[in-house]
């Protein structure tokens, strides 16, 4: 899995609440979900993305996703946002 897409994105939404908001607003281009994140959180996001037609990419770990997003902590969910 290449994290280049995340690193090159002009705008990111990091975290469950923010990402849910951008998906609901139709602004999310692609959502990234960490495989080691809490399934109670990630399954809701996966269903929301399915409903709204947003592509979902699963990544290996929260730590790697957080790093790709440029933060020092793990991230369960992140999205590339369309301006």
TrEMBL record:
Record's GO cellular component terms: ribosome
Residue spans crossing the bilayer: none
A Pfam family matched in the record: Ribosomal_L7Ae
Gene3D superfamilies according to UniProt: 3.30.1330.30
Stretches assigned to the Ribosomal protein eL8/eL30/eS12/Gadd45 domain: 5-82
Signal peptide span: none
Alphabetical UniProt keywords: Ribonucleoprotein, Ribosomal protein
Lineage top rank: taxon: Bacteria
Name the record gives this protein: 50S ribosomal protein L7ae-like protein
Protein source organism: Paenibacillus thalictri
């Amino acid at each position: 899995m290449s994290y280049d897409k995340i690193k090159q994105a002009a705008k990111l939404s990091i975290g469950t609440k923010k990402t849910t908001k951008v998906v609901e607003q139709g602004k999310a281009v692609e959502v990234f979900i960490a495989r080691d994140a809490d399934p109670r959180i990630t399954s809701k996001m996966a269903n929301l993305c399915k409903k709204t037609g947003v592509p979902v990419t699963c990544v290996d770990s929260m730590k790697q996703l957080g790093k790709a997003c440029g933060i020092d902590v793990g991230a369960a969910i992140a999205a590339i946002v369309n301006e």
